[in-house]
Write a structure and sequence with these properties.
- The chain is of the alpha/beta class and about 375 residues long.
- The protein is about 35% helix and about 15% strand.
- The protein has 14 helices and 14 strands.
- It has a seven-stranded mixed β-sheet with strand order 3-9-8-7-6-4-5, with helices on both faces.
- Helix 10 runs parallel beside helix 14.
- The chain binds ligand P1T.
- The site of ligand P1T has 19 residues, from helix 3 and helix 4.
Length: about 375
């Protein structure tokens, strides 16, 4: 089955009890048993599994070419589930540019429990290799990264993690499986903030993990079941509905993202535009190699003046773009990473990796491109 068919039919079955074409929202916490320990069907209790969530999880596995999908109550809950596999003394090597909440979890929750974290630019493979030792257990990357749109060569990293027997997880939130399939490139775990492009309509908080290895899938499912951060039936339904138009939406996000990039790149008030589709982007060759169909709808940029006030005034003037955290919905959003999504990263660390006070991040939506460009033009004036 091709991807555009999988988003609609992958892992889906008509409802066996009614023939309903779309999965019903099974708004129930529990399921009847005929005798103690003998449920009459496949389900016992919705923390363990629920038919609407199963429908979503099957779709997730299908579109990422995995064997098992798991749906969580948020993207961070999905990340937390992976991290729970490790203990004090274990080491994790992570990309140096990450969503602020992921960085906060690593440094303020897990570091305090004795896990050691190294943050490194994964494009420096020699440096990455030099950090691997007998305690290293997990490699974690986002690609493209939030908010600087750095890339990591998934295939090259997977070659090293396989050789060293490390678990390799890729946060595929920015790319989506329409553009990039980390499991096919050698990663062990794909993570999503399904709040973003998978849901696609800014109306749900959700997360996902997808794996190829069945034993790993069972282990993660046990951890999720035993700790409880599962996605409810109504939210599972919303994410599944979003996935059915993922290919159409992301295609338009890519078209609009490329046009917004071109406009910004030629604007005298704009200094640097970060977009993997730009030929001048330092990781454009990696993007071409591992991203198919386009380069996404996320664009970040800085101001020629370098002034925080210019970024703030631009953000306050926007009328079609909405100033808000999050991304990946049909509507265009704008964000100031240093004051909003990445404020939990200490200032010196932000400066070190390039999240400056004049950096703006745009989630380019699927509106008419003329209206988006007009809006940017007036706000930059
Ligand atoms: O918000 P939540 O569903 O828990 O997902 C966390 C998360 C994980 N990974 C990436 C790459 C993300 O962008 C996010 C959430 N990001 C935002 C809310 C944001 O505006 O960047």
């Amino acid at each position: 089955m091709k991807f555009n068919t999988k988003v609609i039919h992958g892992g889906q079955h008509h409802d066996p009890s009614t023939g309903a074409v779309m999965p019903p929202v099974y708004q129930t916490s529990t399921f009847v048993q005929s005798s103690p320990g003998q449920p009459i069907g496949d389900y016992e209790y919705s923390r363990a599994s629920n038919p609407t969530r199963t429908a979503l999880e099957n779709a997730l596995a299908s579109i990422e070419n995995g064997t098992k999908g798991l749906a969580f109550s948020s993207g961070l809950a999905a990340t937390d589930c992976v991290l729970r596999s490790f203990k004090a003394g274990d080491e994790v090597i992570a990309m140096d540019d990450l969503y602020g909440g992921t960085y906060r979890m690593f440094t303020r929750i897990y570091k305090d429990s004795g896990i050691k974290f190294h943050f490194v630019d994964m494009n420096d493979l020699e440096k990455f290799k030099s950090l691997i030792n007998e305690n290293t257990k997990l490699v974690w990357v986002e690609t493209p990264t939030n908010p600087l749109m750095k890339l990591a060569d998934i295939e090259a990293i997977a070659k090293i993690t396989k050789e060293k027997k490390l678990l390799f997880a890729v946060d595929n939130t920015f790319a989506t499986p329409y553009l990039q399939k980390p499991l096919d490139l050698g990663a062990d775990i794909v993570m999503h903030s399904a709040t973003k492009y998978l849901g696609g309509h800014s109306d749900v908080i959700a997360g996902a993990l997808i794996v190829k290895d069945e034993a790993l899938g069972e282990q993660l499912h046990f951890q999720q079941f035993a700790t409880g951060a599962t996605l409810g039936p109504q939210d599972s339904f919303l994410v599944l509905r979003g996935i059915k138009t993922l290919h159409l939406r992301v295609q338009r996000h890519c078209e609009n993202g490329a046009k917004v990039t071109e406009f910004l790149n030629n604007h005298p008030k704009v200094k640097t535009v970060y977009y993997p589709g730009l030929e001048s982007h330092p990781f454009h060759e990696i993007a071409k190699k591992q991203m198919k169909n386009g380069f996404g709808g996320m664009v970040s940029f800085t101001f020629e003046s370098g002034k925080k006030e210019d970024a703030i005034s631009f953000l306050e003037k926007l009328q079609v773009f909405t100033l808000a955290e999050s991304l990946g919905g049909v509507e265009s959003l704008a964000n100031h990473p240093a004051l909003m999504t990445h404020a939990s990263i200490p200032e010196d660390k932000r400066k070190e990796i390039g999240i400056t006070d004049d950096l703006v991040r745009l989630s380019v939506g699927v509106e008419d491109i003329d209206d988006l460009i007009e809006d940017l033009k007036q706000a930059l004036q």
